[in-house]
Amino acid sequence: MKLIKSITSMQKISRILRKNRKTIGFVPTMGYLHEGHLSLVKRAVRDCDITVMSIYVNPLQFGPSEDFKSYPRDLKRDMSLAKSAGADYIFLPSNKQMYPSQCLTSVEVTGISRVLCGVSRPGHFKGVTTVVAKLFNVVSPDMAYFGQKDAQQSILIQKMVKDLNLPLKVKVLPIIRESDGLAMSSRNAYLTSAQRKVAVLLYKSLQQAKAQISQGERNPRKIVQRMKRLISESKFATIDYINIVDADDLSEKKKIKGRVLIALAVFIGKVRLIDNVIIRV
Ligand code: AMP
Question: Does the annotation mark 37 as catalytic?
Answer without folding.
Answer: yes
